[in-house]
Design goal:
The chain is mainly alpha-helical. The chain contains seven helices and no strands. α4 packs antiparallel against α5. It is globular.
Length: 214
Amino acid sequence: MRLVPKWALLSSGCAPVLLVGGWTIAGLLEGPAYDPATQTISVLAAHGAAGFWVMTGALVALGVCHLLTAWGLRAAALAGRVALGGGGASALVVVLVPAPSSGGSLRHGSAVAVGFALLAVWPVLAARRGTAAPWGLRPVPSLVMTALMGAGAAWFLIEVHDRGAIGVAERVVTSVQSLWPFVVVASCLRHQPGFTGFRRATDVSVGRGRRSSP
């Protein structure tokens, strides 16, 4: 049985395309009044925004993609799959509690923060030890990506505090977070024969050891 089905490549690959496509089209519909460098993605999904349905649909699709990828990524550790799925669920919650047309929202901000945190920690929680693990699930790349995503989230908070390039920081962080599942799935599919073969070889060697023991 395949540890990672091929359809997971589609679900993970669609996530960044839908996200970037969503905010690009919604931004164009919003017109020059919207500044993507200093305004968040949530502004595009706020009630009354010209691109409300486009950005809302993109966030829903993003959440579904993460949930499907988490379900199919059986090569990853369970804790990481749960965190990735939780990140997808958080995107759906963000849609249910959209940002107001003006001012802030504690519920919306909390949902965004939870999603950021879950998608930042899932790589290190999903990591597998050993040379037989796919590259995307090895401890070092996973730890590096979690550190980068955490640093990106910190950058976003700094920009929010300083009222600076909030939109730039958010887009960089969310782009990386939406792209990494695709990298992990691709590495699993590329490595899969060796990964399953390692398990079978281990089982065979253990069986031989048992038969040869007195």
